[in-house]
């Protein structure tokens, strides 16, 4: 790279000959100035000077990478201070990584988990990151190629937990299928949520994480053999269709009906489903239908996209990248073999499935909150107000500390529950962890609420601006409420936790 002295750069100080120094690199901005989103005027004012401080006060560092074509050289015998970590590396910002990952002793994480985390992060940094922002901003669903690459790395299957479905698969970092546990899975959820682009992460087949387990755990053999391989490869997509316009957390109120034909070979399905993640681009719908009256009248049915199935994109607070759909089933003919579990046994399937979904949501939410905290720490350290960095203000340190304390508390509880999952069968998890996971999810979304609130106050106006330095904060605070509603509303979660506890409350306990 060509080297210049600072005196040499200083000569290029006019609008038609405009160089600046940013972090020891020399940029020729002459032709760029008129296209500069912050105006040409501000660049004219710093022409020929070192504008490092002004730059970092107003831009995210990624912009330098994006506009690296403007670099014409470097300042002789100076090195850049900013180190852009290579793909797959961990952040050195305090609390930006969970404590266990940073070489602190942990009762849960082994070398296998750490090498897995590094490999999944490398995959996400190199395959997902370039796609993420572009697709999310356009409101497009993730590139099919990306979904296929996730399939080639067997990551779709890994996000569905440990189990027989991993047998014979080659996993990243040489992790053996038999050593893969819920901590490996949790790490995969964390990494997939690390972009601060919620709806993009949702679009990465998160519908599969909730739509495929009923097939895996309760589906008939033919369904597992024919459908699962297509899902794991990324060739086909599946989603979970439970909620309806009139019934959200109140699963017992489901109205979408499936009536058997006189020959007994088919169901005819009629009804609508709302807020179905990935529904706009799914090939299969794991659908809760009413086959009779009362709680035993609910069944789960695998419905393939075809005649009578229509999906419309719902305009949510996020973007269309998540594929959130309004689904209509109109006289859809479904073979009776497509029942998942027993006819009339849908309620149990739904309840068992919710645990895994809620737990995975906590993993993703913790990773998202961590990213926000990292951005806040960086911003508070580099942003100067009233003559000193924001972090010099006790009120800012309090807000940051509050966010960290809340996050680490939730993270610890979620790790303990993850450990319990590694020691329990799926049935035991359903019986014993539904209540604690419900309460954990509630605690988690209260934490993200506080993180969003504090982060907005730390970032100020930039937290309500979709582009620029606070873009991750803006997104986080805009979609934060998704977690408090999806997979069961906060109030329902708390109630579930207490009702489950009441079931095992000792009859002979007295004050
Ligand atoms: C390599 C040099 C530079 C590049 C490639 C660049 C690029 C950009 C881009 C892409 C934005 C839009 C940011 C966004 O909304 O995401 C922006 C905004 C801005 N830039 Fe630059 N810029 C450069 C240097 C500078 C310098 C040296 C200054 C000040 C002296 C400056 C001042 C601003 C201002 C004031 C804004 C508007 C910020 C806001 O809306 O909060 N830029 N720049």
Automatic annotation (TrEMBL):
SUPFAM superfamilies for this protein: Acyl-CoA dehydrogenase C-terminal domain-like (SSF47203), Acyl-CoA dehydrogenase NM domain-like (SSF56645), Cytochrome b5-like heme/steroid binding domain (SSF55856)
Which coenzymes or cofactors are required? FAD
The record's annotation in Pfam families points to:
Acyl-CoA_dh_1, Acyl-CoA_dh_M, Acyl-CoA_dh_N, Cyt-b5
Q: Name one GO biological process term.
A: fatty acid beta-oxidation using acyl-CoA dehydrogenase
Supply the Gene3D superfamilies for this chain.
Acyl-CoA dehydrogenase/oxidase, N-terminal domain, Butyryl-CoA Dehydrogenase, subunit A, domain 2, Butyryl-CoA Dehydrogenase, subunit A, domain 3, Cytochrome b5-like heme/steroid binding domain
InterPro entries annotated for this entry? Answer: Acyl-CoA_dehydrogenase, Acyl-CoA_Oxase/DH_mid-dom, Acyl-CoA_Oxase/DH_mid-dom_sf, AcylCo_DH-like_C, AcylCo_DH/oxidase_C, AcylCoA_DH/ox_N, AcylCoA_DH/ox_N_sf, AcylCoA_DH/oxidase_NM_dom_sf
Coiled coil regions, renumbered to chain:
none
Report the residue ranges that make up the Cytochrome b5 heme-binding domain in this protein. Answer: 1-76
Q: Look up keyword Flavoprotein and say if it applies.
A: yes
What keywords tag this UniProt record? FAD, Flavoprotein, Oxidoreductase
The membrane spanning regions, by residue number, are: none
Q: Name one GO cellular component term.
A: cytoplasm
What is a GO molecular function of this protein? Answer: flavin adenine dinucleotide binding
Q: Is-annotated flag, keyword Secreted?
A: no
PANTHER family assigned to the protein according to its UniProt record, in alphabetical order: ACYL-COA DEHYDROGENASE FAMILY PROTEIN (AFU_ORTHOLOGUE AFUA_6G10880)-RELATED, MEDIUM-CHAIN SPECIFIC ACYL-COA DEHYDROGENASE, MITOCHONDRIAL-RELATED
**Family membership noted in the UniProt record:** Belongs to the acyl-CoA dehydrogenase family.
Q: What is this protein called?
A: Acyl-CoA dehydrogenase NM domain-like protein
Taxonomic path: Eukaryota, Fungi, Fungi incertae sedis, Chytridiomycota, Chytridiomycota incertae sedis
